[in-house]
Write a structure and sequence with these properties.
3-stranded antiparallel beta sheet; 4-stranded antiparallel beta sheet; 34 helices
Length: 830
Amino acid sequence: MTPTTSRRCSVPKSRLSTTTGASRRHGPVAEGLDFASRFVGGIITAEPAVAAAPPRPHGELGSASSTHISRLAATVWMDADKVTRYQRAQATECVLQYLRDFPGQTWQERWDASPIGQGLVAANSLGTRRSTGLAITPGVRALYCLRAIQPTLVTFRRNVLHNFAPMFVTGQDDPLLEKYAAQVQAQPMRHVHRREAMAELCTLLAVQGVALSDVTPEAVVHFTQENRRARSVLQPGNKVANRLVGQGMWNVLHAMGHFPPATPLTLRAALMRGQRTVEEMVTQYPIRNQAVRALLIDYFTRRRADTDYSTLKNLVLLVAHHFWEKIERVNPDQADLRISPEHYATWRQMITVKDNGKPRAGQDSIVIAVRSFYFDLHTWAAEEPERWAAWVAPCPVPPSELHGLGTRRRRINERSANRTRQRQPLLPVLVDHVETRYDRARLLLERANKAAEGEVFTHDGTDYRRVITEADRKLLRHGDAVPTRVIEESSGQIIHIGTEEETAFWEWAAVETLRHSGVRVEELIELTHLSGRQYQRANGEVIALLVIAPSKTDRERVIPMSAELFHVIASIIRRHTRTGRPIPLISRYDPHDKEWSAPMPFLFQRQNGTTPAVFCTGTIQEMISRRGQALAEAHPGFRGLKFTPHDFRRIFATELVNSGLPIHIGAALLGHLNIQTTRGYVAVFDEDVVRHYKEHLHRRREVRPEGEYRDTTDQEWGEFEEHFDRRKVELGSCGRPYGTPCQHEHACIRCPMLHINPKMLDRLEELETDLLARLQRAQDENWIGEVEGINLTLTFLRAKREETQRRTRRPAVDLGIPKPRIVPSTPEAP
């Protein structure tokens, strides 16, 4: 290196040493995040990899001369031109010249003592190409790739090192690393994710100072957690720092068999904590009295045998946190469960507000849990006095606390009923909005895909121009698929129509499935390709059924699918299988039970970076809320109003019972174990509910024989199948439940149970013409009652025609013809 270059690269040491907040490899930065995170534990303990032998692909360079290392920086990578290799050598020499000013016997020791090695400043602080005529970061990159220096993760992230991964792979001469690179290219990932998978592994190897053969699942987890901590230092307050780094790397290592067979399939699965033990759940609350703490652990351990994990976790929250922890705040010297009335009154006043000072609505649940806690101890003490009798004490909850509980619950039902009354008239507006938005995005995407680059086309009265950006051209050079983009000519805005169509589709699918099935949001995201079943009658007619997996009530149920619901489910299936591949088998994480499901073909899934993932309940809620906010700008009814997935369930139940369906059938469709729960869902029409329920009980008492669970006879089964034939009418089919007669005197046009066959739209036109002629005659003759009746019939007819026409506008879904799978024959054992 010439003296001139040396002077250009030199930076006064005093100018850098004044920087504060130094962070070393295992310093304060790595001790915690400055923001909350879900990924704070996991089934795998985070531990850095340990090298069986320090990787030295070019020999021991810790004490080598700067000339030797600079020569390696120029000669190891011969794919570049001569000028580039010379500049890389000069940059390497510049960095080593800078490190000479710091104490240490090796280059690593000098690096750790320097501000750049501590991650306080970036490498370009030594100078840039504009100030020195030479870029410094290529020298830092070469030192990493040659294994002359092992950086910390903060130091590595401080500098932007272009083309680091391919240079690192070339510099290692490691067949296993080259095998990994080939496996990355074979993975079904986009180019950007392949690049990330390579960069993440090379960064891990450089930072932890190991070879690929030394990398373990624990090392990847450690790298992921340390990466989040490093980003929180470099980008304080930025939630993007919490992004999981290493998912693609994990997938590739798992696919190539590098991890043990029992290793979780995804990084998310390895980072999720899973179910806590009872002792861990109790320990998270600061309880001073260790004897009471041990009692609570024993109590919750016994309760765990008869309850699920989610309920147990909530019980621990109510009794350990809201009750005993607050009792100790009131009386720090409380030694047993005998609570004085004064302390109870203080505690009772304390739980009327939340920890954040807001009023608490769920006070009854806390009081009932405490009362059950004391009564459980009384009962168990009679069975096992040696274990529980010492803790028996009078229940501090007086009977007066439960007075008015029924009234308060009725107030809750009234609020729910009022909520349903507000949202039911707005549902058609929301449905029309999501349908229109999806149709517009779908048709625009179809037009854009057919258009050539630069071609201008008109869609829905707006001019668009198909564009391919420079980033798209780069993806095309790598053989990657490019997203479809258009420019709106009037505004010049670039629209990623592929992303918009994807979002609009799932918003439409979620709204339509919720409103046509009445399922809970947890049941929605648990629907799989196997949920669709069919029942075929003897005459060949097929009835589509939807199997709802056990959720809240732990009971499976089967509901018949309407034509609209079947179309939605078929559209989702077709979307997943449009490339010819089956729906991916993935696991879903249950946030309540803290468990991963078996791999299944979930319908509500989409690609999330490198890994397909099932929608979470929060995402479904966010999609619905986003549509409501968009409607609020033009529709005043949506201002200050929020739709939730459960609102669709309540509206579904209300419309079922209001249309004449017996309430016990509605309860079965909704999955309610108690018919009173269904009553609460449809409280807005309480008189109809009571009437239907009484009629149902009266019919059952009259028609059910004593041996009602005998086998079905051929005659009864024939009558069951004949019921579906009797539902066929001129205009379509009747949706009345099995075993119920027509309650509307066959006034089909006015009946809400009539489902119009699209083939009969011409017949509706004829009926409307006839009704208009009758209406004119009635008006001429001044038949006021007849005019009112005809106008009502016309209103129903036009509404049914509009609904049928709307269904026919939906594109047909071709699921294809299934092909029989060829099972390879197993050779017989000799």
